[in-house]
């Protein structure tokens, strides 16, 4: 059991890097939907850049790209975790206290993945890692 755990542990930085990459990719998709209409969501038609959703879109697009690349990971993840906490309490929770009913599941998961990245760092395959080398 301990030997198997040790073998798996050596892959942890790579899985962290993959988690970071996929999270950034998913997150930037939310920003591109808001700012560029791709993928299209009618909810964001006519979105004003200087609005809560517009600023959120900018954070999601730019922050998603930086997270995907693993650049400035800890500080960007901290800001994005705050954005997701704000989004949950501002938009989802007032509908219902239950995430399954208020569609806040993604906001909660993004928030806690970003918080994890604040403490764990970027993992493998990151620009942050390249700068240290």
From TrEMBL:
Swiss-Prot/TrEMBL keywords: Cell membrane, Membrane, Transmembrane, Transmembrane helix
Cellular component aspect of the GO annotation: plasma membrane
Pfam families reported in the protein's UniProt record: DoxX
Primary localization class, coarse: membrane
Membrane disposition: Multi-pass membrane protein
Transmembrane segments: 12-28, 48-68, 75-94, 106-127
Cellular compartment(s): Cell membrane
Domain of life where this protein originates: Bacteria
Family: Belongs to the DoxX family.
Protein name per its UniProtKB record: DoxX family protein
